[in-house]
């Protein structure tokens, strides 16, 4: 089984920065995508950023240029560096891993961590 544990959320003022971390353990397929999602009250969960096992990245238009997703060489950690934070970034942020197994593609989720941007 895959376990995802998130950390780094908290309260920050507009214009500030936070770095979220997600530690993955368990049987993760070698070809995978790790993603950050977020969900604000009353809104649907949205994709924030993704990074493939090959290092390719993509971002939501709303965060491009402000957020950076990365993963370590062992591919056991994924980060989301969030700069120039805005109140509209306030949400619960979730780590996700999608295993691109030819036999059984699967998704796993972290528990979520609250990010609040407020003065």
Helix content, binned percent? under 10%
Coarse shape: elongated
Assembly category: single chain
User: From the alpha-carbon coordinates, what is the Rg to the nearest angstrom?
Assistant: 14 Å
Structural class: mainly beta
One letter per element, helices H and strands E, the order comes to EEEEEEEEEEE
How would you state the average pLDDT, rounded? 94
Distance between the termini: 40 Å
Strand content: over 45%
Report the biggest beta sheet as strand number plus sense, adding barrel if it closes: 7 strands, mixed
Describe what this molecule looks like in 3D:
The relative contact order is 0.32. The N and C termini lie far apart (40 Å). A hairpin with a 4-residue loop joins β5 and β6. Strands 2, 4, 5, 6, 9, 10 and 11 form a seven-stranded mixed β-sheet that branches. Strands 1-3-8-7 form a four-stranded antiparallel β-sheet, with no helix packed on it. It contains no helices and eleven strands. With 119 residues, it is mainly beta.
């Amino acid at each position: 089984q895959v376990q995802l544990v998130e950390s780094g959320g908290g309260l920050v003022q507009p214009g500030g920065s936070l770095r979220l971390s997600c530690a993955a353990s368990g049987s993760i397929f070698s070809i995978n995508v790790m993603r950050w999602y977020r969900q604000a009250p009353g809104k649907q969960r949205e994709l924030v950023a993704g990074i493939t096992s090959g290092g390719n990245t993509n971002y939501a238009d709303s965060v491009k240029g402000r957020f950076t997703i990365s993963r370590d060489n062992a591919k056991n950690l994924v980060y989301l560096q969030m700069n120039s934070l805005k109140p509209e970034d306030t949400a619960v942020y979730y780590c996700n891993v999608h295993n691109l197994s030819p036999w059984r593609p699967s998704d796993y989720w972290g528990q979520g961590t609250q990010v609040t941007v407020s003065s």
